[in-house]
Amino acid sequence: MSTHDRPVMPGYMSRRTILRGAAFAAGGVLLGSAIEVGGAQTALASSEPQVYARAYWGARSPRRSAQVLGSGPSYIVVHHTFTANTNDHSVNHATALSRAIQRYHMDVNGWDDIGQQLTISRGGHILEGRNTSLASIRNGQHAVGAHTANHNGHTVGIENEGTYTWASPPQSLMDALVSTCVWLCSAYDLDPGAAIVGHRDFNPTNCPGDQLYSMLPQLRRDVSARLRSSQAAEPKKEAPEERPTYPDLPERERETEHYHGPAA
Ligand SMILES: [Zn+2]
């Protein structure tokens, strides 16, 4: 991807971070002295993937600004969007998806804004969700969303486009999900082995689908490996305060597009 394709992303464009990005793209093989990491801030900035901000996808203004907590979340919750498994991997499709989800969350659910902090399309495009999410992540803070009932104060939610009850996500989506989790674990000092969970771990729902859920152990390993190969791997936050509850899966869950279990 040429740098001209990137949306505005402060802190991303230094030669150092571009080189570092290249190293990640090459499977985490470090390029010797080409990579110098000056400190935690640099490591964090360099782990930030390309994220399309709300202005890029044409987000509506929220009814109210998100509540921002001074400390970061303890968990990264993986969801599926319960929408079609499209083959349209374009950015235009990804921005339309975000607008559709926001419309559903605001106009059907009656929420203040789109619920999740981040959305990943099947093409692997990563988009900001709830207002102030990007700035909050960069500051180590938490913009409270609506995606995992009773746990929104300490969880950051990623909506992955598609329905993964029977089908598996495309590689493009999984690659972006790994990058996103590396970034979030760096930003919030989280141990991927403990922090990455599925929606069903907290609420009675099939989300994120049996197939994607079964890929979470590999996701945790991939994220751990990437963190180890970077110098972003700092001491990790210990044992989160509220552990997943692992409720029973519902036998017959409501089947409505966009609906994936208790969220707010
Ligand atoms: Zn969910």
Structural Rg: 17 Å
| Biggest beta-sheet profile | 6 strands, mixed
Spatial arrangement of strands, main beta sheet: 1-5-4-7-3-8
Q: What CATH architecture label of the domain at 50-229 applies?
A: 3-Layer(aba) Sandwich
Per DSSP E runs of 2 or more residues, the count of β-strands stands at 8
Q: What pattern of helices and strands is seen along the backbone? A: HHEHEEHEEHEEHHEHH
Q: What's the CATH class label of the domain at 50-229?
A: Alpha Beta
Question: In the CATH hierarchy, what is the superfamily of the domain at 50-229?
Answer: Peptidoglycan recognition protein-like
Protein described:
The chain is an alpha/beta fold and 264 residues long. It has a domain at 50-229: Peptidoglycan recognition protein-like (Lysozyme-like), CATH 3.40.80.10. It has helices at 15-25, 40-47, 54-57, 91-108, 133-138, 171-188, 192-195, 210-214, 216-229, and strands at residues 51-52, 68-69, 75-80, 118-120, 126-128, 142-143, 155-160, 196-198. The chain has a six-stranded mixed sheet with strand order 1-5-4-7-3-8, sandwiched between helices. It has a two-stranded antiparallel sheet with strand order 2-6. Helix 1 crosses helix 2 (40-47) and helix 6 (171-188) packs across helix 9. Bound molecules: zinc ion. Zinc ion (ZN) is lined by residues 79, 199, 205, 207, 260-261. Zinc ion binds at residues 79, 199, 205, 207, 260-261.
